[in-house]
Amino acid sequence: MSGFEGITAVVTGAARGIGRALATRLAAAGAAVVAVDIRGSDVERMAARLSAGGARALGVRCDVSSRAEVADLGRAVAAWSPGGVQLLCNNAGVFTPRHAVTATHEDWEWVLGVCLWGTIHGIEEFLPGMVASGRPGHVLNTASMNGYIPNRNSALYSAAKYAVVGLSETLRLELASTRVGVTVLAPSAVHTDIGTCEDVRPARFARTREDPPDDPFADHGLAAARQPGEVAALALEGVLAGREVIFTDPVVGPLLDERHARVRAAVPTSPPGISPR
Predict the structure, then answer these.
(1) Has 157 been annotated as catalytic?
(2) Which key words are in the record (predicted)?
């Protein structure tokens, strides 16, 4: 993509944090923005604010973990933008402070439902049309540094984000002969309110038991948290540059080196033999 002027962009998780910043910057760059969030009134106010600033904007309440609701979103977008979608930002994400050993099945369903299945649902709904149009397009999938570097407090979140990274890398290969690119956004610490997302947890994912939350944080020696606007700017620059992945913290570099060294050390230098019984 050479720019955002005149395109239609769908941004999930657009009422807060990185999603709000993405939608704001895209509108300022001349894109028609479909702002999507489970917080219906918030996203409608968001769209109204963008419209008041001169942008073309639509706010849609949608739970991206529901395939049926994303299908409804697709119909609303098709009616609003008959020319289709050129930029899909699968950004919605949730986090719950649970270790794997203490998480309930509903915790797993909710985190994977939004972070992984929400991304899959967006791809199912919009990508075929993007490819078929023959127009330049792009998919921006928000993962996390925890999609590359796990910590002892991120089992649910990392399970989802590792999957988003693998999906995105494979999708990039699949789409290499098309005009649609794929970029992974892998932020580290960002000033968002993802810690309050339990407030909008759907009833169908309600926990079947209550116990104290686990500590959600681990110290990787990360740099100070960045503002959502900074991260959105890096992400959109990366989209235009066609980058495969965008990190937001240089501290991730040595952590990646350390992890890859451990994995590389496990590769045999010659075909492994089979021990006789």
Answers:
(1) yes
(2) Oxidoreductase
Domains of the chain: 8-265 (3.40.50.720)
Distance CA 56, CA 6 (A): 10
Task: Return the pLDDT at 193.
Answer: 82
Beta bridge partners of 246: 185
Owner of token pair 């419209």? 51
% of the chain beyond a pLDDT of 70: 96
pLDDT, tens digit, 9 for 90 and up, residues 208-265: 988 877 775 656 667 788 899 999 999 999 999 999 999 999 999 999 999 999 999 9
Question: Count of alpha carbons within 13 Å of 60, Cβ hemisphere only?
Answer: 25
Q: Residue 173: is it exposed, middle or buried by C-beta count within 10 angstroms (0-12/13-18/19+)?
A: exposed
- The active-site residue out of 157, 162, 205, 247 is 157
Give me the sheet containing 245-247, strands edge to edge: 57-61, 32-37, 8-12, 87-90, 137-142, 180-186, 245-247
Q: How many other C-beta atoms are found inside a 10 Å radius of the C-beta of residue 258?
A: 10
SS3 36: strand
Contact indicator for 224, 189 with CB cutoff of 8 Å: yes
* Confidence band, pLDDT 50/70/90 cuts, at residue 272: confident
Phi, psi of 137 (to 5 degrees): -150, 175
Cα–Cα distance, 120 to 221 (Å, whole number) = 32
Cβ atoms 111, 157 nearer than 8 A: yes
Q: Are 37 and 61 in contact (CB under 8 A)?
A: yes
Tokens in use for 34? 């479909």
Q: Tell how many helices (H) and how many strands (E) occur in the chain.
A: 8, 7
